[in-house]
Amino acid sequence: MGDSRGGCCPPMDLFRSEPMQLVQLIIPMESARLTVSYLGDLGLLQFKDLNSEKSPFQRTYAGQIEKCGEMARTLGFFKEQMLKAGLSPSAKSVPETDIDVDDLEVKLGELEAELIEINANGEKLQRSYNELVEYNSVLKKAGDFFPSAQQNATAQRREMGSSQISEESIETPLLQEQETSADLSNLVKLGFITGLVPRGKSMAFERILFRATRGNVFLKQVPIEAPFIDPISAEKMEKNVFMVFFSGERAKKKILKICDAFGANRYPFSEDHGKQALMISEISGKILDLKSTIDAGSLHRYHLLQTIGVQFEQWNLKVKKEKSIHHTLNMLSLDVTKKCLVAEAWSPVFATKHIQEALQRASVDSNSQVGAILQVMHTRELPPTYFCTNKFTAAFQEIVDAYGVAKYQEANPGVFTIVTFPFLFAVMFGDWGHGICLLLATLILIVREKKLSSQKLGDITEMTFGGRYVILMMSLFSIYAGFIYNECFSVALDLFGPSAYACRDLSCRDAYSIGLIKVRDTYPFGVDSAWHGTRSELPFLNSLKMKMSILLGVAQMNLGIILSYCNATFFGNSVNIWFQFIPQMIFLNSLFGYLSLLIILKWYTGSQADLYHIMIYMFLSPTDELGDNQLFPGQKRAQLVLLLLALVSVPWMLLPKPFLLKRQHENRHRGQSYSPVETTDVTLHSEASHVSHGHGHGDFEFSEVFVHQLIHTIEFVLGAVSNTASYLRLWALSLAHSQLSIVFYEKVLLLAWGYDNMVILVVGIIIFIFATVGVLLIMETLSAFLHALRLHWVEFQNKFYEGDGYKFYPFSFVAIDDEDD
């Protein structure tokens, strides 16, 4: 929805959404798939599900979707294998060929079977190779220490046998009961087990062996420096060669169980030195043969994955398209003859010609004897909202849609948001130095947008990249506001001419204004630099920015009310014009429009009138004389009239509208219950308006409408005050941004500059840069962005924007690569 579609879109008109129509398509079965495919390429139809009562497994094309899902699983397996091999799907443009889905299914199945077989064989060979490598190391290490270990074990056993008349055996209970039939001659005949145990488990392995056999074993361990790949777990780990000497079958069984529990791999070992050398030679030859076989298999697997990678994107896109096509076909209903499919879909009015061309092309290409039929249906259902945007306007439209999608053809605040959003941001962020920094960062994103748009970005980076044109406008308006405030990193510069003021004496910077005298014409653009650095700077700028915030707020709220008039006129709702637009304009401008007029008059005349006093006593004592606070003749009488109009406008908004709506409903229900269905656009707009307010045919409740109007009236009256006060955030954040900038400049940069030390200066510059970027360019940007967002969503859009529509989501192949299955 957010992208323009080349020649398919008419000249963009963002103020109203595109006129929509509900069309019915009757498509012959033989051309159904190709027709839906061409409509997907066009991307201007949103199909309605005519089989919503059926489960996914009961639909006509459930088998084809299952087949596409299986092919997608196979492609996912290929992608996983390519990533493991360090390959990525080829980004080169392969000449697109028309692949038959059945042939593709067979080909993918064959490739998957081949790849699985290669993987299985490779795993077997690799396991054998790892076992042989371990066995080779065991033979070499164990052969070195076997004779001495055997002698030590035998000597230890004989010593234990001679020290006790009846040796304790494995079967002796823990209460030291002696075996009555001990045979010393059998005790010295030792068996042994050789293998590898993970080094991290070697200590525990030794302790368990000792406890299980009550010390009747002799264990010898030697660490190996080079790590091994374990044949079973395929993990790289460090291991020790071990040799356990024991006597008796019971001891052997226990040792074998302990080895299995600790993941110790056991290998046969011969006592004969000649056999050991022969086995080492034989195993070394097998290792070389296996290595060459594994390398050949890996090379074959790599070439196979390369072949798959060349066509992977084409196959993946084909499968996704087929799946989406059959998913759309499942939304169509079968004709009674079961020879045609019937579809209902929303489309823009301008797309009718393009849709007919696609239907004709599909009929010709599929050799169908009967062409598809397109007819426009008349309905009172509210159409979806479709704005034909481009890459510049899409981000601004997303800001509006995040609050709520516009109702069909209501006034779109996105048109004004393009200007007002970055402008209000700039009022809070105004500093042309910081604005240039934002502009440079944004230009990098814009210059590299083709490259970045094709990459997978992080969440924050992707969000920033998507709003690059919003940030561009924000930076340009920030530069403009910075010129008005005359601030560049909090430093005032005479860019547009010399200052109009000069110091009368050296003490003028400590005075409010008496120390400055005007010696030239007024500074041509923005704030005179002479104000910066004086004691009167803060009171002057506070007064300026506070009043400017009120003027901007009242202007934008008036714009919102005017847009409500545009909506009422467009939908033919005269009740809203007379009993919503007019009293709202009167109430808002009787109070805050009058305040804005007083601000302008005070600036123009240079009067010292107290505007706070005027507005407060306009309510408390409207008949009192104004005295020095009078700005124009007849002000007292004008205030009385405005106050009276404001009081009258409240019941004007509250009372007439519910009764008029009730009478309209009764007349419509009584006089048009059996009238023919009208099909004009005015009827559609009027019906949509009534439905949106909850008082259409048959469901009108006067109490609900009256309560709704009461809430709306109270909300507007109280909101007129709170919303105007809310615009003072423009003044507050502008002041905060300016003062933070001054603190970083004076207390960091200038303070470091004052020391005659290069190290302190460099550290001060680094701290200043990080503080400026981290606080002023990131945190303050986010803060001003959120506050500008709130002013648009709450203070501006609640005057006219209902936002209860739903988006137009056409069936399109444009963004199919970004979708996850």
UniProtKB/TrEMBL annotation:
GO terms for biological process: vacuolar acidification. It holds the Pfam family V_ATPase_I. Keywords: Coiled coil, Hydrogen ion transport, Ion transport, Membrane, Transmembrane, Transmembrane helix, Transport. Residues 101-128 form a coiled coil. Its main location: membrane. GO terms for cellular component: vacuolar proton-transporting V-type ATPase, V0 domain. GO terms for molecular function: ATPase binding; proton-transporting ATPase activity, rotational mechanism. Essential component of the vacuolar proton pump (V-ATPase), a multimeric enzyme that catalyzes the translocation of protons across the membranes. Required for assembly and activity of the V-ATPase. Belongs to the V-ATPase 116 kDa subunit family. This is V-type proton ATPase subunit a.
